[in-house]
Every structure is written in C-alpha cells, then in structure tokens.
Design goal:
- The protein has 3 domains: about 1-90, no CATH class; about 100-215, no CATH class; about 220-390, no CATH class.
- It contains 9 helices and 19 strands.
- It has helices at about 1-15, 200-210, 210-215, 220-245, 245-260, 260-285, 290-320, 330-350, 355-400, and strands at about 25-30, 30-35, 40, 50, 55-60, 60, 65-75, 80, 85-90, 95, 100-110, 115, 120-130, 135-145, 150, 155-160, 165-170, 170-175, 190-195.
- The strands form 4 sheets. Strands 1, 2, 3, 4, 5, 7, 9, 11, 13, 14, 16, 18 and 19 form a 13-stranded mixed sheet that branches. It has a two-stranded parallel sheet with strand order 6-8.
Amino acid sequence: MNRLLAVFSLILIMALTPPHAHAEDGLVIGGDVYTGGSAPSSVSAQRDAFAYGVSVNLAGQIGKDAHAAGFDVEIDSDVGADLYAVGGSITVRGNVVEDLSVSGFTVRLNEKASVGHNARIVGANININAPIGGSLLAAGGKVSLNAPVSGDVRLSAGEIEFGPAAKIQGKLTYSTENEISIPASVISADRIQQVPFKGSDLMRDLRETMPEDISFFWPSFFGLVLAFLATLGFFLIVSAVCLAFMPSLVDRLRQRAVANPGMAELSGFLGLAFVAGLVPVSALTLVGLPLIPIVLLAIFALWLLGYLLGTYAVSTRVWMAFSSDTQLDGSMAIKLMVLTAGLVALAILNFIPVIGWLINLAVMFLGLGSITLLTLERMQVRNKATPARQAAQAASEEIEAR
C-alpha cells in the first residue's frame, strides 16, 4: 500500500522538473526509471520502474519493483521483485518474481503471467489465470480463479467461480452471498471453510494487508466511496464553472503558480493567515460580530479555490511534461480529466500519515498564493492609476473654469 501511495508522491516531484529533463524512454535516476504518457513504454530498469498516465503499457525487463498507475494499465514486463498497480483496468502478462498487489475496477492475470510469492487483488471483476507461488487474497464483486495456487486462499466476493485449471494446495476460506459447489479437483472438502458474507469482511481483509501505521485511518468502505464521489463531483462542478466563464483568468493564475512556486507558497500562507486573523479581530467589537460568518465563508471559499487551482496547476504541469500539448489548449473535457486525475492522486496521498496532509496543504497554498499575488498586483496598479486620474480631473476642471 505504501508503494502505491509513493507513486503519486513521485508524480508531484516530477511535476516540478522541467519538461526537457524527461527523456523519451523515461527519466533515469540512480538506476530507477520514471515514465509517463499514453504510448507503450519499453523500459529496462536496473532497479525500480515507475509508470504513470491515462493509459500505461509497460514492457521490458525490470530489475526490482514495478509501480504503475493509470486508467488503463497493461503490464507486459517481467518484474524482478514486486509489482504494485492501481487503475481502472489492469492486465498483467509478465512474470512477477515476488509479490503482486493490484487494485482496479477490472483485474486480469493472463495465463502467460506468473506470481512467485503472494498475490493481493481488489477489484469489481477479477480474473486469475496465472499460477501463484504463494498465498492469494482477492476481494471484489466477482472473482474467477482458473490457475494453481501453492498457498492458502482467501476470497470475499459476491460471486466466485473456479475454472478447470484451478488448484489450491493450501486452505480455502471464502465468503460469498450464495453457497457454491467447489469441485474436488480444486481442493478437498476438509480444507474448505465458508464464513458468512458481510461488507465488513472485505474491509477486514483490506486492513490485514495494510501496514499498521496506516490501518487505523481506514474508514467504512462504502462511506469513503460515497463521500469521495460527492466531494469530487462538487469540485468538478466548481472547476467547470470557473473554466467556462473565466478561462483566461484561470490560465493566468495557473501560469503564475507554476512560474514561481516558492513565492506562491509563501503568499498563500500569508494570505490565509491574514483572512483567518479577521475572525478574532471581528469578535473584539459588537459591530464586527455579524461579520464573522462572512469571514468564515470567505476562508472556506479561498481554501476551495486555492486547492482547486493548486491541483489544476500541478496536474497540468504533469500533463505537459508527458505530452506534446505544451500549452494545454485542449477542450474542456481534457482539462477536467487532467484535474480529476490530480484530485484522485491527492485524495490517495491523504492516507499517508502527516506527509500526505502536508502535501495537500502545500498544493492549497500554491493556488491561494497565486490568487493573492494577482490581487496585490491589481491593487498596486489601481493605486498608481488613482493619482493620474486625479490629475486629469483637476486639469479638466481648470480648463472648464477658464
């Protein structure tokens, strides 16, 4: 799990590097390879490989671990150690020497693939056709097993199927809505245990696979999903309105944030501190008390706009680093897609204790700082223009008096 979250941390770091720093076959640092985009990536890494994009197709020889994140992920590489992948659709065709940990809407382990040790899979539709040398933990809507497993198996799903090539050497513990008939060729009856199917079973299985330092952050699965979708929808509606009615202003703010991120971060902190300081100041007088709700609403609005703008700036920076669209002149749909990817990545980063929260806070300060700098700039221009207008008005009055 920590490895999956590390993918998104590295994406944010790569966003701050110049576009020309990325070679066509990826950025190589200390034997690790970082690559992104929608084109197939033939990567040979001495150590670890990190792949990110809307569509990821990873091929080549990976010396140690492989990490992949995207909406459509295909792994053809032979991985020398562990494989970590997250996405909408995940297909694995390569050989994984050690452990496999993947999560996606659809997960497929091809018959040409293999897993040397343990496999942990979460998805709505899971098809396992590759032999597994260790244990198997799978949870989802439907799980289909059609390959031998050397160790113990734990399955939690609404529907479970076994193919003709399925063979379990260890024990089988399964939870499903309906009782199923398991052929003797798969496993003997004395090594099978059925437990009642409950939503909490799936969450318990997930917690058991997570490190202890982050397991207590894991809330109810369905509550988490619903809250995330509702928040994401609200963020996208606000973003779509801003992009539709203020496209030039949004682009100007984005460019300002990317051009000088250090100054933007500092300005964002000072701007938020100034507005937040109005709350105790307003509470000191009876006249200011009615203004407290307005100040609190302003703080929320600034936080929201700053977070969305910061996420948009970082996401578009990543997009332009890995695509030919260096100015992001695409349609509204492309801009919202890029923003959605950034919001999802930052939401996942929140599960990293302390560090994840600090990264999200830094993104908010980045966007808020750009807004603060533009506001100060316009105030300065207006102050310079005021004496000129006054002088022009005085000259006009003098002419009229004559």
